[in-house]
Design brief:
This protein is mainly α. It is built from three helices and two strands, in the order αββαα. The structure holds zinc ion. Zinc ion binds near residues 18 and 45. This is DUF983 domain-containing protein.
């Protein structure tokens, strides 16, 4: 039986226990609103293992946001040819604000994926469930 790799499970937002069930309903950038499943549709692992568990994901998404804002700021600086004039302040603000808006669904999804896969010692990969 072929095991599902951890990288695949993380990239595709799969359950940390079976790496097959979807953590989220809807696609990353679809018209339908992205929601987190209560339990894994494949193995039944509960995702919000205790009430308010996903509050911790806010810290992860906060850290992701900071990193992205810095990356966007640096990218704007490089792409605008090192322009740091006061007039270009709006350029930076527009790029960073638009970037964060576009990245919001990404952050929502991956902050929870990171929380479930890396920061949840209570949830472990179980090869028993990793089959169709
Ligand atoms: Zn599962």
């Amino acid at each position: 039986m072929q095991k599902t790799s951890k990288l695949y499970a993380i990239v595709h937002g799969k359950c940390p226990q079976c790496r097959r069930g979807d953590i989220f309903t809807g696609s990353l950038y679809g018209f339908n609103v992205q929601r987190t499943n209560t339990v894994c549709p494949h193995c039944g692992q509960r995702f919000e293992i205790e009430p308010g568990y996903f509050y911790a994901a806010m810290y992860v998404s906060y850290a992701m946001n900071c990193a992205e804002m810095i990356a966007l700021g640096v990218a704007t600086y490089v792409l605008s040819g090192g322009n740091l004039e006061f007039e270009s302040l709006w350029l930076y603000l527009t790029v960073i604000f638009t970037g964060c808006l576009l990245l919001a669904p990404f952050n929502y999804r991956y902050s929870r994926v990171i929380l479930l896969h890396w920061l949840s010692p209570k949830i472990k990969y179980n090869a028993y469930y990793d089959k169709p």
